[in-house]
Predict the 3D structure of the following.
Amino acid sequence: MQQEIRPLVAVDIIEQLHRQFAILSGGRGTDGAPIITFPEYPGFSEIPDEDFLNVVTYLTSIPSLEAASIGFIIIIDRRRDKWSAVKASLTRIAGAFPGNLQLVFVLRPSRFIQRAIADIGIKLYRDDFKMKVPIIMLNSVSDLHGYIDKSQLTRELGGTLEYGHSQWIHHRTAIENFAMTVKTTAQMLQTFGTNLAETELPNDVPCTEELLSSHTEQHNKLKVSVCVSLSLTLRKIVLGFYLPRLLFSHTSPIIGSLVSLFICSTFLCTFFLKVKLLSLYVFFIIFISKLLQEPLEKAQTLALQGDQLIQNNHYAIDSIRPKCVELRRICDDFANETKKIYDILGKSLELHKQIDKASQWCEAGIYLLASQAVDKCQTQEGAETALCDIEKFLGTAKEHQLLNGKEFCNQFDMILTPEIKVRTSDQKVNLVQILHIINELIETERVYVEELQSILEGYASEMDNPDLIHLIPTAVLNRREVLFGNLSEIYEFHNRIFLKELENCIENPEFLGRCFLKRKEDLQIYEKYCQNKPRSEALWRQCGDSLFFQECQRKLDHKLSLDAYLLKPVQRITKYQLLLKEMLKCSKNSEGTAELEEALATVLDIIKSANDSMHQIAITGYEGDVHELGKLLLQGSFNVWTDHKKGHNKVKDLARFKPMQRHLFLYAKILLFCKKREENTDGHEKSPSYSFKNSLKMSTVGITENVKGDNKKFEIWYNGREEVYIIQVSKSSLASYFSLMVEQNVPLTYSDADACRREATGGKTNA
């Protein structure tokens, strides 16, 4: 066992302190730096190094950490000595001073020759002292007063500070004895408190009362003993300080010791507050017992009186007998219920004791692991010792091990309420479903990664195979990135990052939502893939029947052609939202639900953005760059009627009563009107495109909420209603369109009938 390192105290170096070659008078610099004085001492150079180091170390340990951190001021008085003494003092201080230095003042020799030698010597040997602080040479104490106030200097240095060295040593010894007494007392209090805390509490009232009485008696005796001994010691110390200044300079260690004692006392008082609560608990049990026992005894006595009346053939025997039977039934029910509750409480207490023991064992294990010193494990012997300690501790786990899980559950089944049983059953079912969803997600993710790898290795990499290059269609040779898009980027992300993070969710399913949110930015790669998908499909339609792709498919033993596998990323991002929805159904009001909801919203937003981008790139005829229009807010096909007004004459389109089919693309600053065209491509599915027809800047248009009360239609008008577009939408999407348009500060108006109705009901309209 490693010995405790005890700090130096005055009694350890009492002889060295009495030599008075260094003193701590209590004076301070202007910034609060402690002053250590080296007074004139003829035999300074003959002091052993160990004695010098012990005294200086002790003196630097007395000020507070805050004061010591400022740095010490050293005053070396060598007025009656020689330059050699000055040099020896500076050399010794530079090499052995343990504290942080701030300044060094030297009162140089007063004799003329020695002063001249000192002036020359300090210039020649200054670098040899290796001090990183200024060394200030002074001619007299009056020069010293220019740096340090007289009130902080002793009489020997022309100051007014009262200081007696023998008295200082006496009081330091007394204070350190007091501090040791306080420390011993605190340890005694802590040991007493620990013994009390570790005492197992009895289950019955008499034993509890006996334990309370014993602990209270011990507490009172200890408290009186501590208070008497400490107060007498402290009184002796205070009476011994005949100088107020000296008393003040020694208050810091006294206060520190008293604070330590106060903490232990507070701990003990807190514990005895719990003891008082236990006493109150005993009183409560006795009170409840009397409260319940008295009515029961009265009822039983009343039933006996009824039996006597029945035996004496009382005239009301027919009325008395049922009452007695009912009274006994109530008493029996009460007794049975009381016993049942008593048994339940007993089982609950037993269960909590077992849980508490297991918890204490776990805490002990944590402490054991945390207390293993790293240095100890650097050697084989130390590592083996640490391992032996851990294995020995693990061997004690058998004491807390359940021999039979089913038997344990049956043992405590009686304390489970029907609500708890239902809730536990639901949690088990939900947990099974959650684990099933997690397993499905991970298994399908592994298959997905394998399929991506097979596409890249079996098709993309084979385009560099010299044996097959003659089979590659010319249209594909320099357009590999069009056919595969950013598939390699998707593969790298899932193989290196996402799959591993999903696998970590097996043990912690509640982290699944966090996993998706963490990779929110990375999942945007699917939007890029979907943007390229129409171009990829168009290229595949040109050369999908080539021998190269057939040969690659044969080697991979794929039942489906490449275009089916190129659809996998689109299917995968859609699969995520389905699995997240299923997870939400099984994880309501549980940990991680909020993150799951946010993750689902994120995936749905990615799907929407990917879908929108596929439609957006199919716009033709628009003179600008659609990618510079910003984020696409909404898009869809609608019925559109137009109404133009030229001059004072209102001219309706020829097709006024027949709606036009238009596909609208809504951006933050502009609304595009396009005509959807579907073209047949050699028997393949139709590939839609959108011919640009018109556009409206959102900053110059207004909106009428509905047309003649039809909530499926609204108007977008332009240039003072010279151009009016009536748009018919489904009822469900109308609100979303309006909210987004209003967010862009589009002026909102209403139809005349609506305006009258809103005015009558106090509604407001926007111009």
